[in-house]
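Worked example 3. Consider a protein that binds beta-D-glucopyranuronic acid.
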Amino acid sequence: MTSLRFVFWFLIISFSASAQKDYKLWLQYNKIQNAVVASEYKTNLGGIVALGSSETSKISLAELETGILDMLGSKPETRSAIKGDNNVIVGSQPALNSDLQKVLASDFDKINNEGFIIKSISSKNKKQIVITGKNDVGVLYGVYRFLRLIQNHKSISNLNIVDAPKINLRVLNHWDNLDRTVERGYAGFSLWNWQKLPDFIDQRYIDYARANASIGINGTVLTNVNANALILTPQYLEKVKALANVFRPYGIKVYLTARFSAPIEIGGLKTADPKDTAVANWWKEKAKEIYNRIPDFGGFLVKANSEGQPGPQNYGRDHIDGANMLADAVAPFGGIIMWRAFVYSEHDANDRAKQAYAEFQPYDGKFKDNVIVQVKNGAIDFQPREPFHPLFGAMPETPLMMEFQITQEYLGFSTHLVYLPKLFQEVLEADTYQKGKGSTVAKVIDGSLSPQKLTGIAGVSNIGNDLNWTGHPFAQANWYGFGRLAWDPYLDSETIADEWLRSTFSNDEDFIKPIKTMMITSREAVVNYMTPLGLHHIMDTGHHYGPGPWVSDLSRPEWNPTYYHKADKNGIGFDRSKTGTNATAQYAQELEQLFDNAQTCPEIDLLWFHHLSWDYKLKNGQTLWNGLALKYQEGVNQVLEMQNTWNNSEKYVDKERFKEVQMLLKIQYKEAKWWRDACLLYFQQYSGKELPAGVEPPIQTLEYFKSLKFPFAPGN
Ligand code: BDP
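Given these inputs, the predicted complex is written out as structure tokens:
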């Protein structure tokens, strides 16, 4: 009996320790076992001198203390004044003494309001480390960066880090509904427990804010873009206020989605026409009401006249009328409007990829100062790979906000390991040629190409109430990586993977090296086994789970995968060149020419821009059919390799997370084969050709794959 009880408690304790690891994200603060590494830190960390008394300063101090305690096993002395040496002095510029202010003056000139300085200085022959910024949130960011250095076993003996975010609005978009379901959410239900708010503050809200602050995210849109007007009623605004109060000390502002027809639905008006005075006044009053409760409310995110959402066009007005009316309502309080450019219509016979550009480009320069236009990274919809959205190269007079999708709607949900910063980096590095060579998307959105009053980046959140937040332990890296790239869009995704792995799992080089390679490969793997060579949107419709290239019977043409791949006896691909829809003309001339010609078009985008015969010769000498089939196989092989790599890492990882990832990779492998077999069998009907050597023959029939139905696939 006693031994049984012992086993039971042992199981409970080891389960919770492991579960906590999953929960703790990249803030593990693992105890440093290497004595040499630890001793450098201990020498440098004699005491902490914390200046400032705001809530944010208290968080900075507490974080520093727990971080150091967990990693080094003892806490530095807290000193009320700078006595002796080897202190960490933590405080904002105004709180520093005049000597320090002088020493750091030129560094302060280099940073903006959210930036920080981490510097080893020697004052009166005493060695100190200063962590400072212009305000307390900057200091907090500095503290997290400092702790990451220790987490990653980097030296802190001679520090000189001066860093500031390059993009001002670094925002998560939660597609969370008021009933706690999450549109395209694969990690459980919404974190926001509206029923218990405002009185019950879940510890998770605090941990969420902390995780975001640690990577520099400074805004959160709490609600789905397919909005519900109820969030704007007093009852819900009280709840929003409670969340805003939790997030504020972490430097995070709250935003809401505004349903354009709210004046009718909750305001009792007969119209939501943006030119109607009563409507404009209703929004002004609503803004006042919100700002009374939440003085630093960020503003609204709006999806209008898109996929059935109401908008100004319902009243014969346009996006400018709608956005500017709302902009006027929040302007007196310093609020902003994030207006989405994700529009396409079933009544428009034009190529869907061209529609957002056609509609929005002529608006360049016409939005009010506090409007930023939010553009998805590609012209269709968060596919495994898309060429960058042509709007990024075509609206120099308008602030454009990047919208990435962190949740993996089209990339295997939370069951597939896909390291998205690799995708994000590809988009950010893409050259728009707007002002000649080197006009990258990153320079467009950070305002360095054409100066902008607002700069921003949004990521559609992959967070839910799953124990590990994101469903897949490695999906945490996508949240982390989004934050890091939002801070600095020029960072390398490999460096980010390195940081994340060290902070989340282990510093052992024998673990880091192969696992980093696995992460980096994972993005190309998903492209290969789902949509190689520029194919796109061939997922099963509605839920987007699994392959559905055969779907052709939906009422809206552009909801059918057949619309996108156009496979027939003559070949496959969407002709967007001059001979087709001429979508290539939406890009700068340099790119237009490059994309227009199949010979010069990058092969990764080949079938995005061209319809080519099955016998078309690829650069490697293979026919298109063979090349396509081999790509599908390559994707499957890559997942197999990922599995092997992970299996070899067992000794570096706690049991729980090791097992979780192992099981998930098994599912991914199964589903990669499903993708390969279903797509190849389907396309083979048109190519009429055998599978090339090296491609495993499918075990199931096409009919079998077509018969699979998933009425309860999550997130739909
Ligand atoms: C699509 C999603 C849909 C979103 C829409 C959007 O399937 O759930 O509402 O994007 O971004 O990809 O508005």
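Take a moment to read the result before moving on. The chain has 23 helices and 14 strands. The first helix runs from residue 2 to 23.
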